[in-house]
Predict the structure of Major Facilitator Superfamily protein.
Amino acid sequence: MPQPTSPGRPPVFPGRPPASPDTPVPTVTADPLAAVGLSPRGRANDDGGTGTGHGRGDGSARVREKGPYRRLFALPGARAFTVWNLVARLPMGMLSVSAVMMIATTRGSYALAGAVVATGLVVTAVAAPWTARLVDRYGQARVALPAAAFAVLGLLALLLCVRHGAPDWTLFAAYAATATTPNTGGMSRARWAHLLKDRADAAEGLHTANSFEQAADELCYMLGPVLAAFLCTALFPEAGTLVGAVLLLTGVTLFTAQRCTEPPAGRPAPGGRAPFRTPGMRPLLVVCLATGAVFGAMEVVTIAFADARGHRSAAGAVLALQAAGSFAAGLAYGAVRAAGSARSRLPWCLAAMTALMVLPLLAASLTGSLVLLAGALLLAGMATAPTMVTAMTLVQRLTPEGRLNEGMTLAVTGLLGGIACGSAAGGWTVEHASAAAGYGVPVAAAATALLTALALFGPPGSRRPGAAGPVESVGSADPAG
């Protein structure tokens, strides 16, 4: 526990000359992230700044305020749970690609592989909110670890069924068992919310934390497919699934072992609403659904466009550029102080995403160049991370206390549903029109998300009572949303 400093002279240590009365003495504060002034000519202000004292002098020490990410990871236990959560989250970008490559290589059918993965996605969308509700009620360690172990058993069963030529229906059953995979990203965000709760800088810290988490998502979905493809082609078809299972179980085990940062478990407040029934949540889930459609359509259409140009193998690298743009934008977004409330920022973010999604459509339609398309996707990706960060912040504001994992998982379920719908719509447009025309689907999906947000919250800067009320009712650190 921090101890107050003595008001007397600094102590004299053996072998060291005694300090003069003007020697600055570091001050220990109860807040490890506070910037404390050390100037002998000035005194630390209450807000952590350094006073000017009697004027400037060559001997005055100046302390630069820590950046937002340094302040964030200076929180006790933050680095440990973040590292292991990233290990557990990396398989999220590996498992579907690994399953497709494993099944298609051994069974010779991409249709079967796609159907198995799609079935798992549907079951996950149904089961994930229930798993998250159990996590909120009984704690991350008691629920997430058994759920991850059961999912790993499903992956191993899938691997063995494929390896030994089991009937096709066993592949569907085995992969459906992976629906119990815990929402590791949601659990990490819940820990940040717990660590930052009741702090004076909670709103700013949560903005930085959500930005980092979105950047981490992009990084995992950027590296995961590349790692999966490498393992399945360089080693053996089942290697990607096997490594993904090991990483998932190891990451979740060590993540849940960090008990000092785990949010307390508990029953929901008596009479409290479920997150899905909270005012404002369902329209926000429509925004997540439409945003997911942007991602799903973009992936399918880009693969088709590259294939039509005779460069199918380059599709992964082109899509990785979009993820890279989102990753960089996410980190940059978290490094700056957000202006206004999340409620007022969301329409602006969606408007920017809608405008930037026009760039791939123009590049594909007017030039037909895969290189120019890659550059357009890099720029378009820079709008997705700020949009997702702001949307997730609003989900946290709307979710009742004690049910944060469930609320976050509902948002992820909306995204997964949107990805499925966007993939189907993008594929249909490519088949019945052209690959270039398929880039109109992400534009339409982004515009749908924007119109939904405007209907929910009104134009940016407006203070409609029906729009602001639900967000403000949750008692967050950000009073405006």
Summary: Residues 138 and 196 are 21 Å apart (CA to CA). The chain has a mean pLDDT of 74. The chain has three domains: 31-50+66-75, 76-267, 278-475. The two ends are 34 Å apart (CA to CA).
